[in-house]
Amino acid sequence: MTSPRRRFQTFDDPSHRKGPERVAALRAAMREAGVGGFVVPRADEHQSEYVPANAERLAWLTGFTGSAGTAVVLVEKAAIVVDGRYTLQAPEQVDTAVFTVVPLADKTPDAWIAETISPDTVLGYDPWLHTADSVARLERAVAKAGASLKAVPNLVDAVWAGRPPQPAGRVGLQPLDYAGESAEAKLTRIRDKLAAAGGDALVISDPHNLAWAFNIRGTDVAHTPLALGYAIVPREGQPSLFLSSTDLAPEVRTALGALAELEPRASFEQALGALAGRPAKVRVDVATAGSALKEIIVSSGGAADIGPDPITGMKAVKNDAEIAGTRAAHRRDGLAVTRFLAWLQRSGGNDVSEIEAVEALEDFRAESGLLREVSFPTISGSGQNGAIVHYRVTIGSDRRVQPGELFLIDSGAQYADGTTDITRTVSIGTPTEEMRDRFTRVLQGHIAIARVVFPKGTTGAQIDAFARRALWEAGLDFDHGTGHGVGSFLSVHEGPQRIAKTGAVALEAGMILSNEPGYYRAGAYGIRIENLILVEERAITGGERPMLGFETLTLAPLDRALIEPSLLSPAEAEWLDAYHARVRETLGPDLDPETRAWLEDATRPIGPSA
């Protein structure tokens, strides 16, 4: 008998509302360190979204398991600030007798500090977990209150008994067939960017950029194939690569040794100080570098040039091989999701739990034999749980799907040739008129993004309103961005591109983003429709400017039972029917007869002849 496959997700509840004991221990450490407060961001030294277990300080302290948030603990008060994705989740997970839950839309951590901290208080922070910009904001906040700021060793680590060790997983090479460009060529382009900016060296602090530049992938972090570490790329000469892991096969070590000096992670600070002391102007990434790097450079006599890592923008524009890979990954993933949706409908939702749905979808993906990981923990929300934007089902929260409810499942996969992310909302039984109205308005926003054509130089912020118009007309909206960037067998949330009110970066051909408007009725249901889209050039007959548009990459049917055709314009109905025809024609030949028949019915035209 073969052993069962190891799953990429667990359903344990790590929170269980932490009591005041851990906060009390932190306050004791604060007294010993001579500070009256301490800031605990959800971050590691690379400012990553998904952090290793030993960096889950916010979850350990508060019980909050979301991917973004900041706690501030003072002697007598404490708060946790979360964004719109987590305003429902946070109060369920944290002890609200200890922490005040503050929505980010109402108040930033800096604003809460400025209003709450007492004069003459010393606020402590770990300089590895805050960028130079975030430290500057903290300095302004404490100055406003007549307090002060002090860098200290991490005080959570001082009281965290049983803290997991630093990960050091195996590091492998990303094949050229998938990467599309050699590491040597990438490093040459990086040096050209560095020279154009007048810098002497670049510190790569973002593990995603490290993975892209050296064509490596790792296993140090769940869901994203990262090898943690740093690199120093001089304008002239060989780079130095400082990986946390030493688990490199001989062929990997040989390949990387031809590109860079391989050094232990422990020697990074000394090497950075020696470089800066020449002296040198060193570019430090404004988004991911801890302020500790700036202090090392400055104290060694160098100049810290804080600005964007040029690799971030280079990585965002996918080459032909990466685009071909992601198309293949989405076709493979679409087959798995379609089999799952057919399975779910055939079951009628009867006696299917949220956890069972997650496990079934992962199994359908694993049948390809090519699944490397899930790209994030699956959001599987039935009924009122679907209204929690980043809901994570646990054994304690798991519930059965009930007739008359909506079921929202947001999931993704990591394949060696691409990263996927897809959300489908389905009705269990007969939906209400309100559900159909809200779903169709979300669909109209989704179609508006899919169909939009825009001039080069347009930012995501300029496009975001297209996704909201139909909701706005009914006095409705959603509190998250419409789309995030996506990597190539890398992060499912990749910058700098995004479609959101804060999306200030111009979109370029080759960028991949999500298209995911939604609607959430607290305590009742949630709706989200998500496909991934590729920015591509568009030729407009008679046009005067270079234009761009989107190719939809994701292939899986939408629930026709939730669509109110009378709300759709002829152009919207035409797009939907064309999309469903493409799904049917692309996936149908590789499905078993029963699932193919289900797909034929699920993708029937929505127009008057339906």
Which tags fit this structure?
610 residues, alpha+beta, Creatine Amidinohydrolase, Chain A, domain 1, Creatine Amidinohydrolase, 3 domains, 6-stranded mixed beta sheet, 20 helices, X-Pro_aminopeptidase_P
The third-level CATH topology of the largest domain is Creatine Amidinohydrolase
Tell me, what is the CATH class of the largest domain? Alpha Beta
- Report the portion of residues in β strands: 15-25%
The total domain count is 3
Note the main sheet. Answer: 6 strands, mixed
The overall pLDDT, averaged over residues, is 95
First-residue to last-residue Cα separation: 49 Å
Family: Belongs to the peptidase M24B family.
GO molecular function, one term: metal ion binding
Domain Peptidase M24: 326-537
InterPro entries: Creatin/AminoP/Spt16_N, Creatinase/aminopeptidase-like, Creatinase_N, Pept_M24, Pept_M24B, Peptidase_M24_C, X-Pro_aminopeptidase_P
Describe the protein's architecture and organization.
- The protein is an alpha+beta fold and 610 residues long.
- The protein has three domains: 20-159, 3-Layer(aba) Sandwich (Creatine Amidinohydrolase, Chain A, domain 1); 172-309, Creatine Amidinohydrolase, Chain A, domain 1, CATH 3.40.350.10; 320-596, Creatinase/methionine aminopeptidase superfamily (Creatine Amidinohydrolase, Alpha-Beta Complex).
- The chain has 20 helices and 28 strands.
- The strands form eight sheets. It has a six-stranded mixed β-sheet, sandwiched between helices. It has a six-stranded mixed β-sheet with strand order 12-11-10-8-13-14, sandwiched between helices.
- Helix 4 (109-116) packs parallel to helix 5 (132-145).
- The longest helix has 28 residues, at 320-347.
- The two termini are 49 Å apart.
- The mean pLDDT is 95.
- Its EC number is 3.4.11.9.
- Residues 22-158 form the Creatinase N-terminal domain.
- It holds the Pfam family Peptidase_M24.
- It is an enzyme of class 3 (hydrolase).
- One of its GO terms (cellular component) is cytoplasm.
